[in-house]
Amino acid sequence: MVASKKSGGHREMLESVYSVIALFFILVAFVELCDAAAAVDVYRLIQYDMSGSPFGSRFAALNHHAASLHFPPGADLSRTVLIIPLRELNITFVRDYINQKKPLGGLLFLLPQVFSFENRGNKQIHEKEKMKYLLAELEQLLINANIHYPVYFAFESDEIDTVLAGIKKNDVIDQPATATTGCCHLMRYKLVIPTPEPKKVASPTITNIQGWLSGLKADGEANQLPTIAIVASYDTFGAASALSVGSDSNGSGIVVLLEIARLFSLLYSNPKTRGRYNLLFGLTSGGPYNYNGTQKWLRSFDQRLRESIDYAICLNSIGSWDYELWIHVSKPPENAYIKQIFYGFSNVAEELGLKVGLKHKKINISNPRVAWEHEQFSRLRVTAATLSELSVAPEFLEGTGGLFDSRQFVNETAIIRGVRLVAESLAELADHTDEMNVQYEILEGIFTFYESTSARL
């Protein structure tokens, strides 16, 4: 009997990752064959190249027996897939196996349902807080290693728990199959993924999306109106592409941008409430990769548009803060536009009972590393700032929407505060005094849409 679930869609990230694949647990009974099988969705570890060096795992197909962490000492695991629940993870054991390149048939990590983007409850939130650091450590280990066997993730379920219980029982007994024990005493599970090996994607697609609201010129004004840009990067990077929804990094920035665009489109639809600034909204690709999409987007502007931008506000990870956000800038704080941005946000923050801090870090043009999105603007001499809950920039390929960055980690109250702060600051900068009415239901809908969409780099 085979019970299968409909597989989800897949993403591509530098190389094809076959992100959602059906894994078959086949129950093998020695002496006589039992036609028992069950199919579950699994998510393959990402693979990518960095400066010509391979990372992740290039292997996909599996056809090996399964074992648990209860395998006997000295066992040959070269043709065995270890099934490791996150709850039982010994990170030192996994690190040693990977770093010492010990032979192994494959790895299957079982994640608690609380990490699933389909899980909407908060009953397990304390459990998730407890394990998120362990999962983050595991993720960094896997994406920074070159692993020579398949690695997969799956979510715990009653079906998988039953299978794992049977595997653990066999491992504890450690009884070899014989003609007399046969089907009555020993049953083993085989993990089968009949899929071709993935192929390299030669030229990744970078897609940027932009919107525009035209400001209102005063009577007789001939000069071009200045522009304020509001920008957020939407791509994610994690150990398994289909699981890296990035609700905080940077789904929170996307949600805030879209709600601000909705609010200002209402204001700009009426000439009496239209501002003296043009508003440019940008959703950019390639954020985890030095914001390559932002660079491509900016270079697509004609000179007149680029020179009309007084400054850009980039939104990054603003869904898990309490009362303080940071404005990161590359230009000196004494710069007139930087002062305008900081004072505008600080004044509104004070009125809302919040706090905004300023962080200045000069960029090194010769360094290809781009830590914040505003740095791509600065490299083209456009004043810009990044608003974030993070006081320092994450390391490369960290904080980019990994496995644990799911909806349950986002504080919806923080999102609403972020929308009010940004919207009212922009309204003040653009000479508006109208009150901004944030609609919770719309934010909920935007988040749901974002998480159901697989971004493609």
Layout of helices and strands, plus pairs?
Elements: E1 2-3, E2 12-13, E3 15-16, E4 20-29, E5 36-44, E6 47-50, E7 53-57, E8 62-67, E9 80-85, H1 91-99, E10 106-111, H2 125-143, E11 146-147, E12 151-155, H3 158-173, H4 182-185, E13 187-193, E14 209-213, E15 227-233, H5 247-268, E16 278-284, H6 292-299, H7 303-308, E17 309-316, E18 324-329, H8 336-351, E19 355-360, H9 374-379, E20 384-388, H10 412-429, H11 440-451
Helix pairs in contact: 5-10, 5-11, 8-10
Biggest sheet architecture: 7 strands, mixed, barrel
SS class: alpha/beta
Residue fraction in strands: 15-25%
What is the helical fraction, as a range of percent? 25-40%
Radius of gyration (CA) equals: 26 Å
**Gross geometry:** elongated
Average predicted local confidence, pLDDT:
83
Distance between the termini: 39 Å
Task: Tell me what you see in this structure.
This protein is an alpha/beta fold. Helix content is 30%, strand content 24%. A 7-stranded mixed barrel has the order 4-5-12-10-9-8-13. It has a 7-stranded mixed β-sheet with strand order 14-16-15-17-20-18-19, sandwiched between helices. The chain has a 3-stranded mixed β-sheet with strand order 6-7-11, with no helix packed on it. Helix 5 crosses helix 11 and helix 8 packs across helix 10 (412-429). The longest helix is centred in the middle third of the chain and has 22 residues, at 247-268.
